Amino acid sequence: xxxxxxxxxxxxxxxxAVACGDSTGVDPFSLVGTWDYIGFTDDGVAAQTxxxxxxxxxxxFTVKGTVTFPGEPxxxxxxxxxxxxxxxxxxxxxxxDRSDWTLSASGDVATLTEDEPPPANTITLRRR
Length: 128
Hints:
With 128 residues, the chain is mostly beta strands. The protein is built from one helix and eight strands.
């Protein structure tokens, strides 16, 4: 079945928003891909970060890098887990730990904000 962008039918419009939203063929809100780890906050405290996050199409992810909070030693991070994404709702699962996040994106930068009272934790990534 062939869909043509620009159809005025409401249902087709919803389907086409995903299909035609990005000329690269990558949904701009899809986490699948490789990302530079460019920021992290914990209870409003910003850390310096390095490394990468890789989200696979099979629902797995890996993160390798460092996190350094002001006045604290650098923590090496090497984790893997699974994730579920439904639009802007993202669940990250590491072993038995599950956390809910909201995804926002602007250009090639994505921010995950943990669903918790302010100041919520954030992860900031830049698509490679």
